[in-house]
Design a protein that fits this description.
The complex is a heterodimer of chains A (374) and B (915).
Chain A (H helix, E strand, L loop, with lengths): L1 H18 L2 H11 L1 H9 L9 E5 L4 H8 L10 E2 L5 H6 L5 E5 L3 H6 L5 E7 L3 H26 L8 E7 L6 H32 L1 H6 L5 H31 L8 H25 L3 H17 L12 H7 L3 H14 L4 H31 L3
Parallel strand pairs in A: 1-2, 1-3
Antiparallel strand pairs in A: 3-4
Chain B lengths: L15 H8 L5 E10 L2 E11 L4 E5 L6 H9 L6 E6 L2 E2 L3 H7 L3 E4 L13 H11 L4 H15 L14 H13 L5 E5 L7 H17 L4 E6 L2 H4 L4 E6 L2 E6 L1 H8 L4 H8 L2 H4 L16 E12 L2 E12 L3 E5 L6 H8 L7 E6 L2 E2 L5 H4 L2 E4 L12 H10 L4 H14 L2 E5 L7 H18 L2 E6 L2 H6 L2 E6 L2 E6 L1 H8 L4 H19 L34 H20 L2 H21 L7 E7 L4 H11 L5 E3 L6 H9 L5 E5 L3 H6 L5 E7 L3 H20 L15 E7 L6 H32 L3 H5 L4 H29 L9 H23 L5 H19 L11 H9 L1 H15 L3 H25 L6
Parallel strand pairs in B: 3-8, 3-9, 6-7, 7-8, 13-18, 13-19, 16-17, 17-18, 21-22, 21-23
Antiparallel strand pairs in B: 1-2, 1-4, 4-5, 9-10, 11-12, 11-14, 14-15, 19-20, 23-24
Helix pairs in contact in B: 4-5, 4-6, 4-20, 5-6, 9-10, 14-15, 18-19, 20-28, 21-26, 21-28, 26-28, 26-29, 26-30, 26-32, 28-29, 29-30, 29-32, 29-33, 30-31, 32-33
Chain lengths: 374, 915
């Protein structure tokens, strides 16, 4: 009981010293509002404003119709170039796509000779090259069959395919990126706040102050966990409501309390990580450098940026132990797909057990570091 | 300059005739109406002062009265706000005058070894300063040896400055200041926190130097009033104003006091003196109860013995003083007594119960106040507030109530240097409080201090040096035992004995600090080498030398800092692995399930087309109902459900164009989009190929679209990610390291060296940049090797051209770090701001994920201006497109242009003076 009171008061102290750090508070506010908004609206995985050029050696009515099929905002207005310019233009990165329509294209098509259109793709533009190429192919196919069915009614596909995009019918990328942005901010700021709290105490000599008082390492550490965790939890909740739900109009399919419960589990891990990094680094500067390395790993491999399924198998076994990966997974399940506890309990379990294990380890380290504090 | 060897005993007073000579000389420093503010705080309040030349001038006053600010302004390290200071015949606010006179001024800032590079050795530190002042190699060698010998640092030129004791650090600082033979030596609290013996040696050293350089003016500040007693001329300061000036004798005569401390109190305005009275200590009645009992306490850190067999016994109600310099083991002993630190050997008990680390019982009985008393609110240790209340002149009545509270709670107060930097009156009132606690409340007080006069107020003191208690008794008794005139002399006597004892035990060292003088009057050679003073000129060669001095210094520091070194090299390799394997846009192994209402050969054939598309699709157990389909999509069991309607086969045959529904999980948009395109693609291909079951009636009029994935025919993301990762890492890591290296100097204080030496801004910036360009190039080669050997990505274009391009790029990216460093003041801020500033445009707008040609608006502007865009183009081009050097030339041109722009920003942002 006494222990609980201690943890409570120490945590309150932690909150007060955070509140008095104006720069940190401003950074926190920025990180959970503007930064998320910018991040989620800034880039998109959809093809947008793609640069395209045509080499029109046919110069027929059909080729004109094909060129006119590409227009903003998805594509920039197509430019016409000559065949020998293709390589240089693509080497310079001027165009992502160059479509080359051969001579006698329309005539060959009418003669059912299956003429060939060449689609040159700058494959170095990874995220858009694949999707864009498929778009272009579909558009071209559509236009061609449309053009031909005006002459020949039988030229229709025997099976119709209806693709329904579930959970995000228009493929609005901000739906996904906004939540990933929150997740990334949670990881970063929780680790920074907790770790900085540990180091600040050590640098200012107040840690020793606490240590001569009737307190133990567990209480000190747990106070940091709850107070910093609470701040982040509040910021997350507000951000989810104000930025994601209100400003970005992302519909939330599942239960928010369930998601927040998951966040709490994750926070436990993240604060433990903060204590761990704060303990092993000797100064703020070292801590900052370490964080950069750790956060990059935590974020990039979480599946928030590129799909986990695409990682090599051996890497997937490793990332299975990363709580951030499960955080991204259960967030998707709850927020977009509206999944319930039955769909996420496994993720929760992994996050919680890794979190507890890591907390125990960090605590031990923290205790040891106190013992050798100079 | 040849210095005499050190002598231990104090010098006789300086001959009076010198004073007469220098009275005719114009003042070395003339201060008129100087006002200095930090925000709303007034640090200097219209100071007017003429400081006579060729004298030892002392600036006395407690901390926070503006001494350091004034010295910083005089040294030209701080920017003037109001008023005028003439130093060595010119206005110090004038940059040209500063450049001319700064080689004649030496400035040692406050704080033990504050302007030293703690990782660097003693010799490297001094050598660095000498190089900044343009001394030639042979001059440096001779000069440094001479100074090292004179200061007793001779035996350990290679020891890192961070591992020296406080007194030795100050000596290194002094060597660095004297290496260019200044005319004006400014020392800001050089002896604060230094043990009495080192302190005495330090003053002897200064006296020797002055004997050799009689024309040199020395300006010193101190909080120890007793030190100033022997100086030529005193400026007493309080609250940003000059109280009085004159020789110590004059000042004491004026106030009718016998020592400077009392004299200072008398000089204070009346309202400050109010309520102050001479401190009297009532005698203590002996008490049999033992509060603290320590037996043979020893603490080792590795080989280093911090505390060596300390035995103490302190009675209840006693005021026990612990005297010693910084780093002598006082704090460690206290930590063992409080149970903060377990003892390696020995035992300690507090009120009879044993102290063990973690024992909460004991801690409830004591209050502990650390040296750095930064506090958090009322909820923790209350006595801090009471002490503060006293220190900051809160009415005693208010404090009283809290004291009662304190006494109820704590039977023992442990105070670690509670009065450092506090003015004498506040110190006295603090002591009144302690005496009251001890005498009237029976509280045991254990206090450490380095003020000797505070030591005299204790019931008993122990003198500590190098981890050992030298003597322990009532202060008066210690003084009379040694027959010394005061406690300081007595302490020095005990220390000499201890040193002599260790020397007889070990082999005697010829150059030991305590060696006595052979030649009290050294044959002074003519001071200064002819022409040397001119070497600070503006010749470009000298500038290059200073730049190289900075470069060598920086390189030396990084090599000795394992964390930064690891970040530089391991960091980039690690990130290359994570990015290379972690960022991938290849979508494979899409798990899908089928809800087949038809179960006809046609439907199975349709599904088979998907199942056969390995490795893109992977079929899972079929779905039996729409609800199950949704559930499995929700729980991420499958990402695609194909729903084939009843009568699919029949309708197909009858040409009724049946409709297949593909439900794609689009929660992750990019992936959803790709899956949708794949489905469409397979569907189309199936229908266009004549031979399939589906194509009983294939459409005749179709065009074939042949896609040519240029530069990466297999369209694996590895081939485009691997070449773009170096572009990312070579901006992030160099920029961060660069920013940290400059901000670190600002934060730790060694930036002062830049302020007060003739180093120009550009020399400083380039010197700092050079090592990081080198590190980045090494990194580039590591990354190239990894791309080839780990990821198997070969470079198709010219390696040489890309290397040249990289050189320009890392020069630009370190330039970004420099630019950021000019507006950040803490290392943490530098790291995060640099990371944010570099990562955002690099990831979003430089073509990593989205080609720059597709950006619009502001994003396009940023993308066009950001150097990474151009390097990314060259790097990806060189790897995948076999880009010709000619096409890279444009990128190089842009990068080359961006470098001077970044230099200009850093140059404008860098201050040659502290604000």
């Amino acid at each position: 009981m006494n222990s609980l009171i201690n943890i409570y008061w120490l945590g309150v102290k932690e909150l007060k010293s955070l509140l008095s750090d104006v720069v940190m508070v401003l950074f926190l506010i920025y990180a959970f509002t503007a930064a998320i908004y910018v991040q989620s609206t800034g880039t998109s995985s959809e093809v947008n404003n793609a640069s395209i050029a045509f080499v029109d050696e046919d110069d027929s009515g059909l080729s004109q119709e094909l060129i006119n099929a590409f227009f903003p905002p998805r594509f920039q207005a197509p430019e016409l170039i000559s065949a020998q310019d293709i390589d240089v233009a693509m080497d310079r990165g001027q165009y992502m796509f160059v479509v080359s329509i051969p001579p006698r294209f329309e005539l060959d098509l009418r003669a059912a000779k299956k003429p060939q259109i060449q689609l040159n793709i700058d494959a170095t533009a990874m995220q858009q090259a694949g999707i864009g190429a498929n778009y272009i192919k579909n558009i071209l196919n559509d236009r061609i069959s449309n053009f031909m069915s005006r002459q020949d009614k039988t030229n229709e596909q025997p099976i119709q395919l209806v693709v329904r995009k579930m959970f995000n019918p228009n493929g609005t990328s901000s739906w996904f990126t906004s939540v990933v942005a929150i997740i990334n901010q949670i990881s970063l700021l929780t680790v920074v706040l907790t770790g900085a709290a540990v180091i600040r105490e050590r640098e200012h000599g107040t840690l020793e102050h606490l240590l001569v008082m009737p307190l133990n390492a567990f209480e000190i550490a747990l106070a940091k966990v709850w107070s910093n965790g609470l701040v982040i939890l509040l910021a997350t909740t507000l951000s989810l409501y104000a930025v994601v739900y209100q400003a970005l109009q992302v519909p939330i399919a599942g239960s928010v309390p369930l998601w927040l419960f998951g966040v709490v589990l994750y926070l436990f891990f993240a604060t433990a990580l903060g204590i761990f990094l704060g303990t092993i680094s000797r100064s703020m500067a070292q801590f900052a450098l370490l964080i950069i390395l750790v956060i990059v790993v935590l974020q990039l491999l979480s599946g928030g940026n590129t799909p986990v399924e695409s990682q090599p198998d051996w890497l997937q076994y490793f990332t299975y132990l990363l709580p951030s990966r499960h955080f991204v997974s259960f967030s998707q399940i709850i927020i977009y797909r509206g999944g319930g506890l039955s769909a996420v309990w496994q993720h929760f379990l992994v996050v919680a057990s890794v979190g507890i294990g890591f907390f125990a380890y960090s605590l031990q380290l923290f205790r040891k570091s106190i013992a050798v504090t100079k | 300059m040849k210095l005499g060897l050190l002598r231990l005993r104090q010098l006789p007073p300086r001959p009076q005739k010198l004073d007469l000579i220098f009275m005719e000389v114009p003042p070395v420093i003339s201060i008129q109406g100087v006002v200095h503010r930090y925000g709303k705080t007034l640090a200097l309040n219209s100071v007017n002062l003429d400081i006579p030349a060729g004298k030892m001038v002392g600036l006395i006053g407690p901390d926070g009265v503006g001494k350091s600010t004034l010295l910083g302004l005089i040294a030209g390290a701080k920017r003037m706000q109001e008023g005028r200071i003439d130093v060595l015949g010119g206005d110090i606010a004038d940059a040209n005058h500063r450049r001319i006179v700064c080689p004649r001024i030496a400035y040692m800032p406050q704080g033990l070894g504050k302007n030293l590079y703690l990782e660097l050795s003693v010799r490297d530190n001094i050598d660095f300063m000498a190089r900044l002042f343009g001394l030639s190699r042979s001059e440096r060698l001779a000069k440094i040896d001479e100074l090292l010998q004179a200061t007793g640092l001779g035996p350990f030129p290679q020891r890192p400055a961070g591992k020296l004791s406080g007194g030795m650090k100050q000596k290194v600082g002094l060597c660095g200041a004297l290496v260019h033979e200044p005319d004006l030596l400014i020392l800001d609290e050089p002896t604060t926190g230094v043990d009495p013996l080192s302190r005495q040696q330090f003053w002897t050293l200064i006296d020797d130097i002055r004997r050799d350089l009689p024309s040199m003016s020395v300006l010193i500040s101190t909080a120890y009033m007793d030190e100033a007693q022997r100086w030529d001329w005193i400026v007493a300061m309080d609250d940003g104003q000059v109280l009085s000036t004159g020789t110590p004798a004059e000042l004491m005569a004026k106030t009718g006091t016998a020592d400077l401390e009392r004299c200072f109190i008398k000089l204070l305005p009346d309202e400050k003196q109010q309520g102050h009275q001479e401190l009297t200590i009532p005698p203590r009645t002996s008490n049999a109860e033992i509060a603290i009992d320590a037996k043979g306490l020893t603490r080792r850190f590795g080989d280093f013995v911090a505390v060596d067999r300390v035995t103490l016994s302190i009675e209840r109600g006693e005021i026990f003083g612990f005297l010693g310099s910084n780093g002598c083991g006082k704090s460690t002993t206290m930590k063992m007594l409080t149970g903060l630190l377990p003892a390696t050997e020995g035992t300690a008990t507090i009120f009879g119960s044993s102290v063990e680390a973690g024992s909460l019982e004991v801690r409830k009985n004591l209050g502990y106040m650390t040296q750095a008393f930064s506090l958090y609110g009322e909820l923790t240790v209350r006595e801090n507030l009471i002490l503060d209340a006293r220190l900051y002149h809160i009415p005693p009545g208010k404090a009283k109530a809290r004291i009662d509270e304190l006494v109820d709670k704590f039977g023992l107060l442990i105070l670690d240097e509670p009065t450092s930097g506090v003015d004498p009156i506040a110190r006295d009132s603090f002591w009144e409080l302690l005496i009251d606690l001890s005498r009237n409340q029976g509280v045991t007080i254990f206090v450490t201090t380095h003020f000797m006069n505070e030591g005299m107020r204790c019931d008993r003191i122990s003198l500590m040096h190098a981890g050992r208690v030298l003597a322990c008794d009532a202060p008066q008794k210690l003084v009379s035992d040694r027959g010394a005139p005061n406690l300081e002399e007595a302490f020095i006597g005990y220390m000499e004995d201890a040193i002599a004892e260790t020397k007889t035990q070990s082999a005697p060292k010829p150059n030991s600090e305590a060696s006595t003088a052979k030649d009290p009057h050294p044959t002074s050679e003519p001071v200064g080498m002819p022409g040397k003073k001119g070497s600070h000129g503006s010749s470009p060669w000298l500038g290059a030398k200073r730049m190289l001095a900075y470069a060598a210094n920086e390189a030396n520091q990084i090599i000795r800092d394992p964390v930064r070194l690891a970040f530089a090299f391991i960091g980039s390799s690690l990130m290359m692995l994570v990015f290379g394997y972690g960022i991938t846009t290849d979508i494979e192994n899409i798990r899908f399930a089928v809800l087949d209402y038809d179960q006809s050969p046609q439907s199975r054939a349709y599904v088979q087309q998907f199942a056969a598309a390995v490795p893109y699709f992977e079929m899972k157990a079929p779905v039996t109902s729409p609800d199950e389909a949704l559930d499995r999509l929700k729980s991420d069991d499958v990402s695609l459900v194909l729903e084939i309607p009843p009568g699919f086969g029949r309708d197909l045959k009858r040409d009724r164009r049946p409709e297949v529904l593909a439900q794609v999980d689009a929660a992750m948009t990019f992936r959803g989009e790709t899956v949708a395109q794949y489905v469409q693609g397979i569907h189309n291909r199936m229908l266009n190929e004549a031979a399939t079951v589906m194509s009983s009636r294939s459409s005749r009029y179709v065009a074939e679209i042949e896609d040519r994935y240029m530069y990466n025919p297999t369209f694996e993301s590895l081939y485009s990610i691997v070449p773009s990762v170096p572009a990312l890492l070579l901006v992030l890591i160099p920029a961060i390291l660069m920013a940290v290296s400059i901000v670190r100097e600002k934060e730790l204080g060694s930036m002062i060296n830049f302020y007060v030496t003739p180093t120009r801004k550009m020399e400083y910036l380039l010197g700092k940049q050079l090592p990081y360009i080198l590190i980045s190039m090494v990194n580039y080669f590591i990354l190239c090797a990894m791309a080839l050997f780990v990821f198997g990505v070969e470079m198709k274009g010219s390696f040489l051209a890309l290397t040249a391009c990289t050189l320009l790029y890392v020069t630009a990216t370190t330039g970004i770090g420099m630019a950021v460093s000019t507006f950040t003041s803490s290392q943490v801020a530098a790291v995060f701001i640099t990371a944010i500033v570099t990562m955002l445009p690099t990831i979003q707008f430089s073509g990593l994920l989205q080609p720059v040609s597709t950006l619009t608006g502001n994003a396009k502007v940023v993308g066009t201006l950001w150097p990474t865009t151009y390097y990314m183009h060259s790097s990806v081009g060189a790897y995948t497109k076999g880009l010709s050097p000619f096409l890279m030339l444009q990128d190089m041109l842009f990068l080359a242009v961006s470098i001077p722009v970044l230099w200009a920003i850093a140059w404008l942002g860098l201050r040659k003076q502290e604000v």
